[in-house]
Design brief:
single chain, 11 helices, rod-shaped, 4 strands, 4-stranded antiparallel beta sheet, mainly alpha
Length: 409
């Protein structure tokens, strides 16, 4: 018979293991010595120790599910309970019991973690739905559309909730996307209609612009082109390709007209610049007539200068007032000389001036006599009154004498 602290083999070859409840038969060994029998069943015990150790590590270090862990524990417990090994079986049971506690603890932790993840996922999906519903009202079609597509990708990356909650949130999310797509489609349909109307309107503007490109009615046509440009801007944009093609035609028609007008205006400007030089020369010639010494000769010379002036034609608009002003100044000087001569040589006017002067001189002399008589009589009040009247008559007399001098007499 052979034995160790945890088991023994009796003389019949029966192998026992010692437990807290007493000895339990492990098996029968007839093929060798009792020592070999104990060693065999001790190795089976060591095998159980290794398996339990491996399972403990898997539970602690991997994501082994609680269900799979419990199945493995039950399998090992059955082997321990069937007493097919020699060793401290109770220690193995305690390790398995502790491992069950660990699995349950992990199960609770995972349950709490899953509940937390589910709650976070719910809040995340609710936030996605709220943002999607806000974006559904946006008119930033491009950026809002891109953001909604990004929200779908985010949604797919979140865990599923319970069927009811997940379906309700997805329904709202999907409805918001559909509402946005419907509004965007309606917007672009309306935009297409507006662009088609703009295209038709611009076709008409182009047709008129092209019909005007050969016009030589420079002022009226240029004004009409400005009106057409205002109408073009007010018409809105057509589809891109049509807009570009129509604009090139519209602009091309304007370019033809304004290029032709530019050539004509350039020739006209050159001609008017030359005219200005000629008129400035005439103005210098006319200014030599002032001051007027021989009115008749000056008038004849000025008339000849003016005839040449009228034959020259237009000058640049901004230079016109200055050069014409110089001629007008000479003309005014001639008119003033003529009026002065007329006053000097008019007999009737000379007679009227002389008569008026004589009457005023007589009145002044009379007043002076009256003033002297009043003062001699001591009537100073009457004398002062007559003196004031004398001042007025004297002023008129002075003026009349000056006019008479202009007639040379």
């Amino acid at each position: 018979m052979s034995s160790d602290p945890w088991g023994r083999v009796d003389e019949t070859g029966t192998v026992y293991v010692r437990t807290a409840e007493g000895e339990v038969v492990v098996g029968s060994w007839q093929a060798g010595t009792p020592e070999e029998a104990l060693a065999y069943f001790e190795r089976k015990y060591e095998g159980l120790v290794v398996e339990i150790g491996l399972l403990e590590r898997r539970v602690k270090t991997t994501d082994l599910s609680a269900k799979d862990a419990q199945t493995a524990i039950d399998h090992l417990r059955t082997q321990v309970d069937e007493h097919h090994a020699v060793g401290d079986l109770e220690a193995l049971r305690k390790r398995l019991d502790k491992l069950v506690e660990t699995v349950e603890s992990r199960r609770e932790e995972r349950k709490v973690q899953k509940a937390k993840q589910t709650d976070e996922a719910k809040h995340a999906k609710e936030a996605l739905v709220a943002e999607a519903e806000e974006l559904a009202q946006s008119e930033q079609w491009r950026s809002a559309g891109e953001r909604l597509r990004a929200l779908v990708d985010t949604w797919k990356g979140l865990p599923r909730l319970d069927r009811k909650s997940d379906d309700e949130l997805w329904h709202r999310f999907s409805h918001a996307r559909s509402a946005f797509s419907k509004r965007r489609k309606a917007h672009f349909a309306s935009l297409d209609a507006q662009r088609e109307e703009a295209r038709k309107a611009k076709e008409k503007l182009v047709a008129e612009a092209e019909s005007l490109s050969s016009s030589t009615d420079w002022g009226t046509t240029a004004a009409r082109y400005r009106e057409l440009m205002a109408d073009w801007k007010a018409a809105g944009r057509a589809q891109r390709e049509a807009e570009d093609e129509l604009w090139n035609r519209f602009r091309g028609a304007q370019d033809v007209f304004f290029a032709a007008r530019g050539e004509v205006f350039a020739e006209r400007d050159a001609e008017q610049t030359e005219n200005l030089k000629l008129k400035e020369e005439l103005a210098v010639e006319a200014e030599k007539l002032v001051p007027v010494t021989d009115l008749k000769a000056a008038r004849a010379t000025f008339r000849g200068i003016n005839e040449r002036w009228e034959a020259i034609g237009h000058v640049p608009r901004d230079a016109r007032p200055k050069v014409e002003g110089r001629m007008h100044a000479v003309e005014r000087a001639l008119q003033e000389a003529e009026e002065s001569e007329w006053r000097r040589t008019n007999p009737e006017a000379r007679a009227r001036a002389a008569g008026l002067t004589g009457q005023l001189q007589a009145a002044v002399d009379k007043l002076r006599g009256q003033i002297d008589a009043a003062r001699a009589a001591g009537n100073n009040a009457k004398a002062d009154k007559l003196a004031k009247e004398l001042e007025g008559r004297q002023a008129l007399l002075d003026q009349a004498l000056k006019g008479l001098e202009e007639f040379g007499g």
